[in-house]
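Bench notes, bay 3.
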Amino acid sequence: MLYISFPISFSNQVHFNAHRFFHPTDILTWYQDGEMELLRFDYVDDRGSLHKNIDVHASFRVRNGCGIYSLRKTG
């Protein structure tokens, strides 16, 4: 199991040449198909509200949030 979080936004962005924000589905391209399986995606939005077990492929409009990924190694 891998539990990991990233700063997320509605698009990939760099703020002040250092702080990176990722679109929630971008993280899923960082490993090869079949290597890892996304079990759950939660996120904290701009206002600090926790959204649990959200479809990562759904329409996404958060400006600055924190994506929380629960992944499992397959095979």
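Next record in the batch:
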Amino acid sequence: MPVADGTRQRKIVVAKLAAVVALLVPLTAGAQISLSTAVNLAEQHSPSVRAAAAQVRQANAALTETKAAYIPNFNLGAGPGYAYGFPLGYPSVFQANSQSLVFSFAQPDYIRAAHAALNSASLSLKDAQQQVALDVAQDYVELDHDLKEISALGDEMDYANDLVQLEQQRVQAGVDARVTELQAELTAAQVDEKRIHLENDAEEMRQKIGHLTGLPAAGLTTVSSSIPPAPTFSVDSGNDLGAENNPGVSSADANAKSKMYTAFGDRRQDFRPTIAFGANYSLFAKFDNYNQYFKSFQYNNISLGVQITIPLFDAIRRAKARESAADAQHAMADADAARNTFSEETLAMRRSILELNAQQRVAQIQSELAQEQLKSVETELSSGTGSAAAPAATPIQAQQAHIQEREKYEDLLDTQFALIKVQLSLLRATGQIGSWLQSSLK
């Protein structure tokens, strides 16, 4: 009996836990998130944005390093020891020294190169943020489209099932042939197939958004009102923002400028003087009889001065200058290629938008036409045709009109989604996606 009671208690505990989980699941599932919130979370969570931010900090430190060459450093040291015979080196117990660059023809170019590199890194960070925003926006818009179309397919599935039932009744009554019932079943099966495909796609979009934002993917839903309307674009690229507003292209230009300044600085090192400042203090040792080997020995010693260096020949330095010049040419070629790619892609996107706008207009008219035809069929079904000679509408025709109206509406959703995907890509290319997302907050 005790064993039976213990088993019963465990079952009761398990049942209570199952009830608690059943109550909590609806609270965690179906979580809504706005587009702007998803983008903000993704930018904070994105590895590419974090890596680009680290590059900005690295470039900023490199700029400080080039400027710090003019700031005197300060070092302390000690070297106590024993010597036998004539002392080798200075018999210093404690020493302090300071050095800095006073003048160099090349250093200003290195500072300019570091400034350009910092600008390039900052633009790369902005480019990474905009790419993350595009990824999230496209996935978010696709999920929103999937959810809308799944809802429409649910209505269409109800109409298709009603049509199947009507055809089955007519076939059983001997009014219609079996082929009409099969056609109705085929329509229902096709609707169900499309629904399953969209549900799978919606789950995939949830998982992508979850990975980008760090949120749990299960049950994520969109807020359609948080998606702002896309701006209109002209086919002529001259009327819109150009390559100078694309952070990727601007970053490539800034990187090429940085490489050019570096190459210019490397080339200006030959046959040009470099002046450095130096100061040193040493406390000489009293032990080991150093004073026996020096005619005038003193404990405290200090030296100040500048060192002027004029490089006349340095094969390593000249090879380095050729290397940096080739690196600058490579960076300039990359910048030209990025600009050409930008021009070609934006022109193709503008042309695609022109075509998709026409497709959307056709789908819009077809959807409105299907709605009007549905209204006519429903009117005839309820009130008659008004003419004794005209055949009255049947319930089968009404269900078919409902199905066709839903199909045309789904076609309209598809064209709208295809259009906004290209519009988002063009917003990203022209550097406007950030302002577009900000407009959703107003």
